[in-house]
Every structure is written in structure tokens, then in C-alpha cells.
Amino acid sequence: MLPNTGPTSLLFKLKPIQAKSLVPQVSERSAMPGGPEGKTLVVGGDGRYFSPEAVQIILRIGAANGIKHIILGQDAILSTPAVSALIRSLKTDGGILLTASHNPGGPENDFGIKFNIANGGPAPEEVTNSIHKITETIKEYKQINLPDLDLSKTGEFNHGPIKVTIVDPVSNYIKLLKEIFDFELIKNWLHTTSPKPTVLFDALNGVTGPYGRAIFVDELGLDENSIQNCVPKPDFGGSHPDPNLTYAHELVERVEKENIEFGAASDGDGDRNMIYGKGAFVTPSDSVAIIADWAEKAIPYFKSGVKGLARSMPTSGAIDIVAKDKGLEVFEVPTGWKFFGNLMDAGRLSICGEESFGTGSDHIREKDGVWAIVAWLSILAAANKEKPGSGINDVLMQHWKKYGRSFFSRYDYEECESEGAEAMMDHLRKLFASSDFVGQSLKATSSDASFKVKEADDFSYTDPIDGSVSKKQGLYIKFEDGSRIIFRLSGTGSSGATVRLYVEKYSKNEDEYPLDAQDGLKPLIEVALATSKLKEFTKRDKPDVITVS
């Protein structure tokens, strides 16, 4: 039985599937209006264990249900951004992605199936809810008994009644990036600056390995030492393909040891990124704000102007300040890239990001880790034209001096017992509902610092385009001084729940800008832990992952 991990991405421990005879009909909003007959789909994934076998099953079921044409990545490989790009450029009816994002792969780990609609983005909630409902009642489905198709050869093939086009997974996406960025500007910075900047890209044995080689080696002319872990592996080499300071430690260690100026990593399916240079970590919240600030002068795609900016609710408000300075709309949405898609399709959003290392723009309808990495190369190239020798820390400090610094930290408590995690959230909801909580001063445990509660609630979002409402998107406490605490549960893995705690403090005091975020946030973290009774409910003394800014 599949665990209830939410309808957007169905993750499960692998079990054999026995095909039967009929396909159920969807009574709610359909994933493909009019049904599957005569439709064209893009199919690919991050190369994790069971992907080739899953593709063969998709071909058999698709053929039996009237799908006309499937465009497939060679060896079942296509990054999530590349799938979105293909759906949009070829105007297909949608796509199926075989990925569990940044979760581990292999026989004992996660596998996922995700559906993207015709705009290239994740299916909206009414579609995924309908799909999820069917998984609870489905008894039979139909397929055609076809032999396995050789996935290693590109070209067009007739596979029973279905046409299959196997494409190089990289070329269409690289063509798109070259239309967005000035690669000559980046190459000029990398090859004419003295001393030459050093670069390291780490694909974490995920899908972006071939894309990284195409960009850094083939397009930018760097040597093989500029990339590592660039061969996609079914189990990601036994690693956790999540680009953060904990799991991308090999990149961090090499950057520090070799004094590498620009380091970057992407996740298993290519939609997340981390930017890290010698002594310089760029948090996702700062990253998207800085990209938004530099977009018009560093990225040709935005020369005609930026339409609007957005962030997920837990992400720090750094991008809000940039938007205000530039007179742009800014949107706060729930976590989940699909919430950005409506705004993009309506022409009201250009650049957006999530604190969970997701950054992107309206060039596709998915977050795009490689896009963000090339955006940062573009920013550094442009910054060096203005002031030679500028590095990541210089760009960060310049940004903070102009806009102020949002100190931000996220604590991840992974694979917690779901019962205890839910009990903690229920405790907070009851606390928020009490008549005297707003107005209370919550005190730190190791100092005299206190924070007066201004507002506390469960975040709800009304989509300004279609009016749809998304409730219970995260519990938050806002304080009178502008600080925030947020609590969320994430169930995207197959083992338990992940409790995420976010804390944020904004400062315009330049003396504080160089400080370690953990020092400045310590009183706020203490208040969060005491208020939520997190340790009591989860039985955890410390988080598994800490992200700081």
C-alpha cells in the first residue's frame, strides 16, 4: 500500500505491479482534457533505481489507452527542468517524471512518479487530488503486451501502436539556456581574468551530471577538474542527493581545501541548487533576492524588464525588499512550485524561489537548479566588469549594505514519528487559538531577550488568478520586531515525517552583517523550541540538517 505522502508526488517502496484490464475514468478535473486518446507526452527522470523498468510499463499502459506519441529521454534520463522545457517547446499535452527529487534512491529507498500539465508545470491540486483519490480505489487497468524498447538509442520508433521519439536529454535544455544567458560574458570572465577564477560543479551523482559537463566543459571551456560526481547512478552513489551543507559536504570540503572561488551543487532531479565559494555560503533566500536584483543588468533574458517576484511563505523576506525598491509586485505563496505557475502564466511573475534550495524563473514552469547556477556565474561576470576581483562574499556584502540582511535558519528533524510530529502541530494550533496568546512576550531560555507576539496563525493562500484557496500551509508566529517563527511538516520521504522549523530576523545594522547567523538567532530559536515543545513531542535533541544565513 502506498503511504499517504500527499497527492503531488507519490513516493513508495518498490513493489512489483501486476497489470489487469481497465483504466478508471477521472470524474474531477482531468490531467489531460479530453482524456489520453491521441495525446503526446514527455517522459523522463533522474535515473534512479527502477526508472528503465517504469518507462517500459508507461509505454505499455500509454499504448493501451490511446496515447499517440511519447518523447523520451535517452536511457530514461531527463532532468525535471528539461522535461518542463520540452513540454513547452514541443507543445505536448504534459509529461511524466520519474523522480523522488532530492530523496535517496536504490532498492531500499524512494521512487516517485509526478505528472506535469501542458504548461510544463506540476499538476494543480485539483488534478493531483483526483489522481490520489484514484490510487485509493483502483482495482484494474489496461496495458498492451509489448517487448522492452531499447532506451539507449536516439531516434523515432514505432512501438506497437505508439510512436516513440528518444531524444538526447541535454541538447534542447542547453539551447534554452544559451537563449537566456550571455555565455560569452561568462567565458570572458573565466578565461581572461588574472588569476583565473576557479570553479567546481557537483552533480551528486544525479541527473544534472551530463548537463554540467555540457555547460562547464563543452560550452565554457573548463577542464574536467571543474566537475565532479557527474555520472548519474541509480542509487546516487549511495549518497543523499540534496544540495545543502550537510549532504554536499564533499563539495564544501574541496572548495575550502583548494580555495575554489565558485562552487555549486544540484540535486537528484536537477531542480535545486546550492551556491558555495571559499568561506562564502549563499542561502536560497539571499540567492533569489540577489538574482532578482541583478537580473536586468546581468541576464539578457530580463533586459526588457522583470514582471514580478515571489517566494514561498517560509522563505525569508529578502526578495520582498528588492521588489519594493524596484516597484514590483511580490507574492507570498505556499510551498510548492505549482503555486508560482498561475502567476507566471498570467504574466505577473518572472523570478521566484523557495528556501529549500529551489530557484527559478518563467523560462519554464519548474524550479531550475542549473539555471540558478548559470545565473550566479552571470552575476559574478557582470560584477567583475564593474569591479574586478569581485567574489561571492563581495556580492553578498554589497547586497546587504543596500537592502539589509535577513538572518535566517532552518532546522530539519528528519524521519520523526508521525504521531509525535502531528501532536506538536496540534499543540501549537491550540496555543494559537487561545485568547491571550497574541500580545504575550515569549522569553528566551539563556538570556533576557523576549519577543512580543503580533500574529499567529496557519498560513492560508488565495490564488489571485483563479481564486482557489489552499489552507493549513504552515504555522507561523510573527513578532512585533518583524521576526518570524514557522513550523511545517513535510512527508515527501517514505520514512516518517520531517519537522521543519524556520526562524528569521531582519537587520539594518551593518555591524551585524558579518556575524554568524546562529549567534544572532539563538534567542529566537530558544523561543521556538520552548513554545512548540518540539523536543518533548519528537524525542529529538538536535536537528539532522541546519541551513543558516
Number of helices: 15
Mean pLDDT: 92
Major β-sheet profile: 7 strands, mixed
Strand order of the largest sheet: 1-5-4-2-3-7-6
Fraction of residues in helix = 25-40%
β-strand amount: 15-25%
Global geometry: globular
Pairing-aware structural class of the strands and helices? alpha/beta
> Which parts are unreliable, with pLDDT below 50 for 5 consecutive residues or more?
1-28
Computed Rg = 23 Å
What distance lies between the first and last C-alpha atoms, to the nearest angstrom?
40 Å
Structural overview:
The chain is α/β, with parallel strands linked by helices. The protein has helices spanning 51-64, 80-90, 125-135, 171-180, 183-192, 209-219, 249-258, 284-298, 318-326, 338-345, 369-386, 392-403, 418-433, 517-532, 534-538, and strands spanning 10-12, 40-45, 69-77, 95-98, 111-116, 155-159, 162-167, 199-202, 227-228, 262-266, 273-277, 280-282, 308-312, 329-333, 351-354, 358-361, 405-416, 441-443, 450-458, 461-462, 469-470, 475-479, 484-490, 497-507, 545-548. A seven-stranded mixed beta sheet has the order 1-5-4-2-3-7-6, with helices on both faces. Strands 18-19-22-23-24-17-25 form a seven-stranded antiparallel beta sheet. Strands 9-8-10-11-12 form a five-stranded mixed beta sheet, with helices on both faces. Helix 5 packs across helix 11 (369-386) and helix 8 runs parallel beside helix 9 (318-326). The longest helix has 18 residues, at 369-386. The protein is globular, with a radius of gyration of 23 Å. Residues 1-28 have low confidence and may be disordered.
